[in-house]
């Protein structure tokens, strides 16, 4: 594994990937179904032909610009694990700052109703439910695929029973009043 990691680190560095070592380790660990620590504990373990083939494919995809999070299918956000797919955008670091502000502003001495507009993978709605125990949360998105993934993430993070998922184009199907409305729409230019 050591040789493959060293080669991949150089390959990624030449491709302009900012953290070549971390990404090489993350992708190899993902390919093998282990965590990164396993790579350090077993540096001389050879890869099978099938593992090498799968790893080659995934590093080529990364070199071609597919984000690491899409390749491994998950992202860490606010200390929690979330699944991601091409149906949703990868949460940005700025989203964590927005969430910190929302948590600071949210009343803690009473039950509150929160709305996450354009929920995507559900990171905002799920974090609101996790860190505001007296909150009920509505997560709205126009995309059925995004809502399905958000539901999966809510279950993964133990808050599925505290979030209502609603297919809506912004406020189109929303009539309730909310104490806190949070939205972090994508920064995508129209062509």
From TrEMBL:
Keyword Nucleus: no
E.C. number: 2.1.1.297
Catalyzed reactions per annotation: L-glutaminyl-[peptide chain release factor] + S-adenosyl-L-methionine = N(5)-methyl-L-glutaminyl-[peptide chain release factor] + S-adenosyl-L-homocysteine + H(+)
GO BP, one annotated term: methylation
Domain Release factor glutamine methyltransferase N-terminal residue range list: 3-73
GO molecular function, one term: peptide chain release factor N(5)-glutamine methyltransferase activity
Domain Methyltransferase small, first and last residues per copy: 106-189
Primary enzyme class: transferase
Keywords: Methyltransferase, S-adenosyl-L-methionine, Transferase
Pfam families according to UniProt: MTS, PrmC_N
Protein's name according to its UniProt entry: peptide chain release factor N(5)-glutamine methyltransferase
UniProt lineage: unclassified sequences, metagenomes, ecological metagenomes
């Amino acid at each position: 594994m050591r040789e493959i990691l060293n080669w991949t680190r150089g390959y990624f560095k030449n491709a302009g990937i900012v953290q070549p070592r971390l990404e090489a380790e993350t992708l190899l660990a993902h390919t093998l179904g282990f965590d990164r620590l396993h790579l350090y504990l077993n540096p001389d373990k050879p890869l099978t032909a099938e593992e090498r083939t799968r790893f080659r494919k995934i590093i080529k995809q990364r070199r071609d610009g597919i984000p690491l999070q899409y390749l491994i299918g998950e992202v860490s956000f606010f200390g929690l694990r979330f699944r991601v797919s091409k149906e949703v955008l990868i949460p940005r670091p700025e989203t964590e700052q927005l969430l910190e502000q929302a948590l600071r502003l949210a009343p803690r001495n009473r039950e509150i109703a929160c709305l996450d507009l354009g929920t995507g993978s559900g990171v905002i709605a799920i974090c609101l439910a996790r860190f505001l125990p007296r909150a009920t949360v509505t997560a709205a998105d126009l995309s059925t695929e995004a809502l399905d993934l958000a539901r999966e993430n809510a279950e993964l993070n133990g808050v599925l029973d505290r979030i209502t998922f609603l297919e809506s184009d912004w406020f189109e199907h929303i009539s309730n009043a909310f104490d806190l409305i949070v939205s972090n729409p994508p920064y995508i230019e129209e062509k």
